[in-house]
Design goal:
- It contains 20 helices and 27 strands.
- It is α+β, with helices and mostly antiparallel strands.
- The chain is flat.
Amino acid sequence: MPEKKFDRHTITAALPYANGPVHIGHLAGVYVPADIYVRYLRSQKRDALFVCGSDEHGVAITLRARKEGVTPQEIVDKYHTLIKDSFEKLGISFDIYSRTSNKIHHETSSAMFKELFEKGVFEEKTSEQYYDEQSRQFLADRYIIGTCPNCNYDQAYGDQCEKCGSSLSPSELIDPRSALSGDKPVLKETTHWYFPMNEYEQWLRQWILEGHKEWKSNVYGQCKSWLDGGLMPRAMTRDLDWGVPVPVKGAEGKVLYVWFDAPIGYISATKEWALENNKDWEPYWKDENTRLLHFIGKDNIVFHCIIFPSILHADGSYVLPDNVPANEFLNLEGNKISTSKNWAVWLHEYLEDLPGKEDVLRYVLCANAPETKDNDFTWKDFQTRNNSELVAIFGNFINRSVVLTNKYYEGVVPERGELYDIDHDTIKKIKEAPERIAKSMEAFRFREALGEFIDLARTGNKYLADTEPWKLIKENPERVKTIMNIGLQIAANLVVLGEPFLPFTTQKLADMLGMDKMYWNETGHIDLLPSGHQINKAELLFEKIEDDVIQKQMQKLEDTKVANELENIKVTPAKEEITFDDFVKMDIRVGTILEAEKVRKSKKLLKLKVDTGIDQRIVLSGIAEYYAPEDVVGKQVSILVNLAPRKIMGEESQGMILMAENLDGTLRFVQPSEAVQPGSGIS
């Protein structure tokens, strides 16, 4: 737990790019753990502000707009709405979900840049950068494509190779070309304003490497690697027409670098929230008793741990992040999630395909969270965790407790009587659970915290299984009252302790138990439901997920895989040029297949008897892997009738059936769209 007691917490979650939907990798890495932590803080009655919004500037937006043939504003409007709606439906409980195209953000980020400019923080530099002469614009790194010098991937970007993960600069690319025109760019002079990262290196070493050794090893290690490699001045402006205009003279046609303006989006969103709620925004960013936490993925560590803190430090009036609990990446079915290849489980599609299962996704993503290393999501594991843990442990325990209480006592909580050893052991676990879960939460070990929560449900399930109240009810009804009371106390504790993880389920359970809002400090006790309290009828918290549901999701991914493979297949180049005289030598006619049979000892050949209009002849064709003999009889085909006969596997073939080979290697007949007379010429 943090040593210092803070008056308030400002929790930020990485701003998602508004150039596409949110997928499970984003959720597992950032938004689910952030929401779990904020809900936990609220249950602790701590002042916690949860801030996020759409990142609507940068090259990714303009690339998407160009691809779809629309304006950048149309792109961000479309995806901001989709992302915001999806987050709300999953129960991600932001206090404010803003957007960086808002006026208040433009004003806030512009003012911060101008303030630093007037303090003389920036260095104005003129340098040569790539320029597309046809498109008449300078090219941002993402607009430059070439061959990666490390792995030879020919679609690497000017800032990163998405195949091997190497960080690159445009000058390192082999055979660079413009993503706009496809032309080779030229170098042209341009002026930009640089933040002197090198001047903050020693301060960062002290602040991070000495002052924050408690940070997660993956975060601390990446920061150390960047600092050990030496920091260089970084341009805070770009030659683009989409973004926050640079607010200084001579900067026409330039905008703020997206990684300058995007983190400031947390501040502008806080201002927006404060205006809407009649609050003062400054304590959440400028009071030393505020704990600032950034929830991000590992690809954003350098921006949130090195660049943004340096900017805040240069300003001098803001608090710095106390921790940045960044996660690693979540893979999908053994492969890296790829938005460009559609290899992802998209949140909005999940919500449509599996309605009412928001908490199942939250549970599985937390259980598989990539907290210290990359992890993998599989649909089979999703199914197993739902059926074996949520249904068989948590759901089964609650159902038994509520059903039996209604059956034996008409839904009235019975009084406890004499306690046995098993009762004392169970009560001890109830008392220990809140502290155990809290300890893991405070250390940002949410998988561990979830494990402690489900262990309490497992304790309840085992308690009922071991005491068997359904057998004792006739011979010892007083004993059953104690058992059911303790079971219900576990259920009530699970409502509060489980709310950060499973908000929809615990609300349903609270309604079932007739519970009002309770907080963390009330848990660990066995009087949450007093004797005589009336509970309601049982409802199933979870339902078993059948194989056909999972198979549909697997098929979606399989279809994506096939589509990607087809996209990567290149059409065979044209053969060597021939003359018209060469072409007219070929006598191609329409024929009708009269008979067909497999060729012995061959997997590929069919023996066909074809009516060519001239004669009836035998032709051997390598189509047995794609057509059964009985399926081709009667079909009209294109046949080259003047091809010299040749022997194949002891059979003479008199001609060739023309086939079209699809990109996936399958063969299809080239045939007339309507029936024609056998022997009709093709020219």
